TrEMBL record:
InterPro entries: ST7. Its main location: membrane. The chain crosses the membrane at residues 20-38. GO terms for cellular component: membrane. It is found in: Membrane. Signal peptide: none annotated. Keywords: Membrane, Transmembrane, Transmembrane helix. The gene is ST7. This is Suppression of tumorigenicity 7. It is a multi-pass membrane protein. Belongs to the ST7 family.
Length: 54
């Protein structure tokens, strides 16, 4: 009976670790998507091109 409880805890820990990994991956892609969408309002392209020219 105790072994089943230990296995459950290990499985729960593994699940938590994987959920954090997926959460960070999703967060990273959301940030990239927002930068892509907001590149025109933020004028990231213009700022980079003016710094390179100068």
């Amino acid at each position: 009976m105790a072994e089943a409880g230990t296995g459950f805890l290990e499985q729960l820990k593994s699940c938590i670790v994987w959920s954090w990994t997926y959460l960070w991956t999703v967060w990273f892609f959301i940030v990239l998507f927002l930068v892509y969408i907001l590149r025109v309002p933020l004028k990231i392209n213009d700022n980079l091109s003016t710094e390179i020219v100068c």
